[in-house]
Hints:
disordered N terminus, alpha/beta
Amino acid sequence: MTAQASERGxxxxxxxxxxxxxxxxxxxxxxxxxxxxxxxxGVGKTWFAITLCHALxxxxxxxxxxxxxxxxxxxxxxxxxxxxxxxxSVIGGSMTLGxxxxxxxxxxxxxxxxxxxxxxxxxxxxxxxxxxGGDLLRxxxxxxxxxxxxxxxxxxxxxxxxxxxxxxxxVVTEEPTALTDAYAFIKLTLADFPATRFRIVVNMASSRxxxxxxxxxLLRACRSFLGHAPPLAGVVRxxxxxxxxxxxxxxxxxxxxxxxxxxxxxxxxxxLIADATP
Length: 278
């Protein structure tokens, strides 16, 4: 590892052909763009993206939630919506991102819906996804925060939507497989987008203490093998009211504004605002 890479806490840059590839892949970073990622499904990533966006809107922030879980989009399902437009029209060229944006009054934010079960979206090339990321950068000019709910997994097309985001919140749980897959996601994303600022969110934690222990396990692996130390964004405690709000297709902070999980996400939203302040 070079001294310069070590000081940044990031893997060293490779040379030659890999550098050329990275120059093609590396987009401009959008300070307002926040990617929400996970190494595997089932960790509550989409629920967290919705609740974080809602928490930011409750603090008076202008927010856009972009459903970038291509092919398995479900933000609209969790919110009980029948979107008037979706990302398929944007990819098809009949709409711009601005045209496909609609209001979600119950949450106080705007939304761009994905298109579930679409082979067209899930099969997009990485270059096309980076073009989409550039469109998001331009759309972000009208907002304080753009929350990008990217797909679960570690595949290159999934990681491509992380590229334009200056920050990436990686959602994990206490399950060992969630930690292993989160580590793999961070490792592979750093290889393509070394300027990404990762933060860790431990979701469905049995307690704050156990959530912090889970984070420490992931942190040790990242430090030891990647030379990277992503900070803890926050711990969200396990809360039965989350499952009920999802069943009712209603945001947690609307149905249960005083819930423990809601309060934990509110804390993360506050930290995100402070982190985004120049």
